[in-house]
Design goal:
By secondary structure, the protein is mainly beta.
Length: 775
């Protein structure tokens, strides 16, 4: 913590904001809503009274804005998924400091969380400060840093007001504010840099060059009172000019900050923000009506540029909401990419320089109604070869809904550069009613891939699609629900990357539940419901087909059908319903209760009729009349209970998403996502031949198994399902499994159970079944 103004800040120290966390049941999450401001306002929170973000099953508390004055800081935050704070028993703490490396070492600040903002006064001027939040799932648990850490530099601001007069203007006071943004930016630049405060209102159309060391903050009232700043009450509008960018950020080494603006392209501006090789912190922005919302480029690829986006909206731009090329590390939190003409977010090519690591973190963000993919990330190596680079991707608690192609696409294009690799985790996210697949992964080279607690429903093709080429590997899918897609629930196309399902649900998909066309597949502790060809040719361990046993779940659909067409007030189906009249139905997993008022053959009338139906799509029928929200918790006495893969000692886990030690409601990770301990690869690789007497090597992420747990958590099984203990040891962080007596045989496999705990923190392993060899 900083010390210069310690005496002035001391009364604020010493208390933690105590509030409870919303518990996640195993029910399906609700539909998303738009976050941020209304049209014509900035994306930031209102300030003043606390405002909760749109509830769509995710819970989040995150910083959204940090605005500096001469000796003050105004910090704002918002919540998503909370209704009130009376019964909460978790903890949230706010930290401030001048050294980011020790930010969370000091005492937290005492502020009113429900207010949504706090102003720190009496700070050192011309000083950089950092602010961050830390969360604990229960009040007695340790605090964990969460969300973005925002920074700002205090200093006397320069002022600009669209209603100001040029006569007598110098930008040094509210009374002498500049009437144009570029004049305030130029004045600050001549002074060696500084903060520019912009009053609400619409400035004249211009292309603004943001110079190094100058930071822009909008949303101020005419008197520039920091206490009354609000991007909704006082929106700052920056209109663009045809053929120009609205805001250009020049290349430089210093961090540039932009907060609280609405950028309006008017259909003619090329880019809302054009950034080249400049670190940036962008918050509380709305960008609409441009060719591209945000354009990030790098004319040189030797260095990695860091960019943070918080609480921003990119919508209704002609091309991409955000377009990136080059070596960037990007953090995106609480943002929305809506109704853009092409991709909501496109990284292509996203480059990892030789010997470097680049990161993409996307949390609590929405991608909806875009003309191509919601999110499209193409990974490429830097030219020239050399020491390999690393891509690290974390997509968490995001929504991909009604995009014209895939909801979320990650495409590895560095197959000719084998020393490059990727670490990919997608968790707690939902894909619904996208025209192609919900989640799509092209794994053409070295990668560790974990898909955990996903919900993928009513997509036009597959819930999860995995493609690959000659490189062998595995994708682990855990505690996920693949339900009501027109194609397969999980589909591995031609290639050598296999899939291991763990505690997943495959239900009501128009094709197979799991279809593995070439690479091998396994399913451990999974369940299928109303599903044709539920598991394909996968090796099954503790997995079952419920064969329409709706009573196994707290709430699940009775039937699924494909809606082929709409004729007047009737939905035309692919086959007749068995029972629907008077029951609740759901179209395209939209979570709207529509009562079936008439049903004849393959036609049904529902009330209310959907105003727009993405044809073809899936129809689900539920028991009762008042709910279409699935809850995948097993009922008492359910066939799912104790039906999962059983360790050599102890009880079997329940099958399905809620039976996983890391499980919960598919489609959300919870306010404080738990760390994950999992298998990442094996040697020989997945599906590759193995010599009879060879040692099998298994590698992990999130820890390494406690050697004392190996006997209880590890078993070999043969082609007939017989199991026996195995000889194994840990060496240099790897698990070495010796062949059974007589050597490995065709059809052998390995069970790794959740009783295997990490020696680095006691985390339970995500249960998994591994095939041995190529048969």
């Amino acid at each position: 913590m900083f010390s210069a103004n310690r005496q002035k800040l001391k009364p604020l120290f010493g208390a933690v904001l105590v509030l409870g966390l919303v518990g996640a049941s195993c029910s399906r999450i609700s539909a998303p809503g738009q976050t941020g401001g209304e049209p014509g306002t900035g994306g930031g929170s209102t300030g003043g009274a606390f405002e909760s973000g749109a509830a769509h099953g995710h819970t989040a508390i995150q910083l959204t804005s940090l605005v500096p004055g001469a000796d003050k800081l105004r910090v704002e935050w918002k919540s998503r998924g909370f209704e009130d704070f009376e019964d909460f028993d978790g903890a949230v703490a706010l930290f401030i400091g001048s050294d980011v490396s020790t930010l969370f070492d000091g005492q937290p600040e005492d502020v009113d969380l429900e207010r949504g903002l706090h102003i720190f006064s009496g700070l050192n001027t011309e000083t950089e400060y950092f602010v961050g939040l830390a969360l604990a799932p229960d009040s007695g648990d340790p605090l964990t840093p969460a969300g973005p850490v925002l920074s700002a530099r205090t200093g006397q601001p320069f002022y600009a007001d669209p209603n100001a007069d040029y006569f007598g203007a110098d930008g040094l006071s509210p009374e002498t504010a500049w009437p144009a943004v570029f004049l305030a930016v130029f004045s600050a630049s001549l002074d060696g840099g500084g903060n520019v405060w912009l009053a609400g209102g619409s400035f004249a159309a211009a292309e603004i060059q943001l110079r190094p060391g100058v930071h822009i903050y909008g949303g101020f009232p005419a008197d520039f009172d920091l206490r009354r700043r609000s991007t909704k009450i006082h929106p700052t509008l920056l209109p663009g000019m045809p053929g120009k960018s609205v805001l250009k950020i020049e290349a430089g080494l210093a961090l540039q900050r932009v907060d609280g603006l609405t950028i309006l392209g008017g259909g003619g501006a090329i880019n809302g923000i054009d950034l080249d090789r400049t670190p940036a912190q962008l918050s509380g922005l709305t960008i609409e009506g441009c060719s591209r919302g945000l354009r990030l480029r790098a004319s040189a690829i030797s260095n990695v540029t860091a960019v943070t986006l918080v609480d921003c909206i990119a919508r209704e731009n002609n091309l991409e909401g955000l377009s990136l090329e080059g070596p960037y590390s990007v953090s995106i939190e609480g943002c929305s990419f809506l109704s853009n003409g092409q991709e909501g977010l496109e990284f292509g090519p996203w480059i990892a320089p030789a010997g470097a690591r680049v990161n993409l973190t996307v949390k609590d963000s929405d991608f909806a109604g875009n003309g191509h993919e919601g999110l499209d990330v193409d990974l490429e190596a830097s030219p020239g070869g050399g020491t390999g680079g690393v891509f690290e991707i974390l997509i968490e608690d995001c929504e991909f809904e009604q995009n014209a192609e895939d909801g979320c696409l990650v495409d590895i294009d560095y197959e000719t550069s084998p020393s490059w690799r990727a670490e990919i985790v997608v968790r707690g996210s939902r894909a619904r009613a996208n025209r192609l697949s919900g989640f799509s992964f092209d794994i053409d080279s070295h990668a560790e891939v974990l898909l955990q607690r996903l919900s993928s429903t009513a997509n036009g093709q597959d819930g999860i699609e995995i493609t690959s080429e000659s490189h062998a590997g595995l994708v682990l899918v855990s505690a996920s629900a693949l339900v009501g897609n027109l194609g397969q629930g999980v589909h591995t196309l031609a290639g050598q990357v296999g899939v291991a399902l763990s505690h997943c649900l495959l239900a009501g998909n128009g094709g197979a539940g799991l279809k593995n066309e070439l690479a091998r597949a396994t399913a451990a502790s999974c369940a299928a419901h109303l599903q044709t060809n539920p598991f394909g040719t996968a090796r099954l361990r503790g997995s079952l087909d419920l064969a329409g046993d709706t009573e196994a779940f707290t709430c699940a659909a009775l039937e699924y059908r494909t809606v082929l067409n709409v004729s007047g007030d009737e939905l035309v189906l692919d086959s007749p319903l068995q029972s629907a009249l008077g029951l609740a139905t759901e179209v395209a997993a939209d979570e709207v209760v529509r009562l079936a008022t008439e049903a004849a053959g393959a036609r049904v009338t529902v009330m209310p009729m959907p105003s727009a139906v993405p044809l073809p799509t899936r129809l689900a029928i539920f028991a009762g009349t008042d709910s279409v929200s699935e809850d995948y918790e097993p009922r008492p006495g359910s066939a799912l209970e104790d039906a999962g893969m059983a360790p050599s000692s102890g009880s079997a886990l329940d099958a399905g998403p809620c039976g996983s030690p890391q499980g919960g409601a598919p489609g959300t990770s919870g306010l404080v996502p738990i760390p994950l301990f999992r298998v990442t690869s094996m040697e020989p690789a997945w599906g590759r031949p193995i010599d009879m007497g060879a040692v099998l090597v298994v590698r992990f992420a999130g820890g390494t198994p406690d050697p004392s747990q190996l006997a209880a958590g590890l078993r070999v099984f043969d082609a007939s399902g017989n199991t026996w203990p195995v000889s194994a040891e840990m060496r240099a962080g790897e698990l070495l499994i010796s062949p059974p007596v007589g050597g490995w045989s065709a059809g052998d496999g390995i069970e790794l159970h959740s009783t295997l705990l990490s020696s680095e923190g006691g985390l339970a392993l995500i249960p998994i079944t591994l095939p041995v060899g190529s048969h």
